[in-house]
From TrEMBL:
Keyword Repeat carried by entry: yes
CBS domain residues: 224-281, 330-383
Organism phylogeny: Eukaryota, Viridiplantae, Chlorophyta, core chlorophytes, Chlorophyceae
Name recorded for this polypeptide: CBS-domain-containing protein
UniProt cross-references to PANTHER family, sorted A to Z: AMP-ACTIVATED PROTEIN KINASE, GAMMA REGULATORY SUBUNIT, CBS DOMAIN-CONTAINING PROTEIN
Keyword Repeat applies: yes
Length: 383
């Protein structure tokens, strides 16, 4: 507790040397308890360290969540010690590292799917405590700290400053921002979880506290023009995930050959995956997303008589563009804004849709930037 207070005092004059005392005052006087989210029975669904990957994926899918705390099992068979978070990303990274990716990439589609299915079935029996990666995107605080601590402490300590999670099982893990913090009581039970999205939603109901930054455009805030990592629709999903991992990103925009935004590939799009579905990771990323959203990606089948791009009349193209919903081709409805959109608009979208990112697109629907929950929290405290 003292260490966290010292950390906050050290940063009390602002992140990056710029301070917004209004936001800091709001977060500083707001206790963590205002965001308390309890499940029925007063506890959060947890996983045991000796449970398998297959069991973990089943629970995450049933609960429709991306992660769950992992508890050690005591002598009486009861969960009695917090070990870390089990995140879907950690599971897939552990699976990926057990593959010879170059060999898999060289296989034909059907052979690759069978290969991934077989390896997925074997990987499903791995116990969580034996995963190479565990607890990389989550941290823990004691309930007494949650009662007396402020949202400012959580934001500064966990959600903005890159750090190595105290729950990470990977000694070589580089510092990174975490997206969730679990609170546990004296019995070792996890009582509630606080996420970046919770803080963003809280700020969306206190917009006046943001001051002038809320009315600034995303372009004015420097969020437009930075080079974006992208992925093509025909890229195998497993390669797209490997790209996310190597670049330490949680999502990638899917663009066509001309750079138009088609969809978003993120770890959340794989939340329903089970070991027997690992073969689907060999599919083109656009097809996998379309299947996940119960539709069909048809662009691969659209060809003109000479084998080139489909010949469509300008009238048809203009009408389709006028009524287009970005992401429709893969079954998504993407959250997008323009470069002149205000930060408050982005904040409203993130809060209402409980999303983690909003894309910035130009008049041709080409992505020119992205705004995440982390960006919003950083901007709120910097300006």
């Amino acid at each position: 507790m003292e260490a966290m207070q010292n950390f906050v005092q050290k940063l009390s004059h602002g992140v990056g040397g710029i301070s917004n005392e209004t936001v800091r005052d709001l977060l500083g006087r707001s206790k963590v308890a205002v965001l308390r989210k309890e499940e029925h029975g007063g506890t959060v669904a947890c996983l045991g360290a000796t449970q398998t990957v297959g069991e973990a994926l089943q629970l995450l899918g049933q609960k429709k969540v991306m992660s769950a705390p992992v508890m050690g099992v005591g002598c009486g068979g009861q969960m009695d010690d917090v070990l870390g978070f089990c995140d879907l990303k950690d599971i897939l990274i552990s699976f990926l590292e057990g593959l010879n990716l170059q060999q898999v990439q060289g296989e034909k589609l059907m052979h690759r799917m069978r290969d991934l299915e077989e390896k997925g079935a074997a990987f499903a029996a791995t116990q969580l405590k034996d995963l190479k990666h565990l607890g990389s995107d989550g941290d823990f605080i004691h309930s007494t700290q949650a009662k007396s601590g402020s949202l400012l402490e959580i934001v500064l300590k966990c959600f903005i400053e890159p750090r190595t999670s105290c729950s990470s099982s990977d000694p070589g893990k580089k510092p990174s921002i975490v997206h969730r913090v679990a609170c546990f009581d004296s019995q070792g039970r996890v009582t509630h979880i606080i996420s970046q999205s919770d803080i963003v939603k809280f700020l969306s109901s206190h917009v006046p506290a943001l001051g002038d930054v809320a009315s600034k455009s995303v372009s004015e805030l420097g969020l437009v023009g930075k080079k974006l990592e992208t992925v093509r629709p025909e890229t195998p999903a497993i390669d797209a995930f490997a790209q996310c991992t190597s670049k330490r990103l949680s999502g990638l925009p899917i663009v066509d050959s001309e750079g138009h935004l088609l969809g978003n590939f993120g770890i959340t799009d794989l939340r329903s995956i089970n070991p027997e579905h690992f073969g689907a990771l060999a599919l083109p990323v656009a097809e996998l997303l379309a299947l996940e959203h119960h539709t069909e990606f048809t662009r691969f089948n659209r060809r003109s008589s000479d084998g080139g791009p489909p010949a469509r009349h300008r009238f048809v193209e203009e009408r389709q563009k006028a009524h287009a919903v970005l992401g429709r081709d893969v079954g998504q409805t993407l959250l997008v804004v323009k470069p002149d959109s205000k930060l408050v608009e982005v904040l409203d979208l993130l809060a209402k849709r409980r999303s983690h990112r909003v894309y910035i697109v130009d008049n041709d629907d080409k992505p020119v930037g992205v705004v995440t929950c982390t960006d919003v929290l950083s901007l709120a405290l910097r300006h």
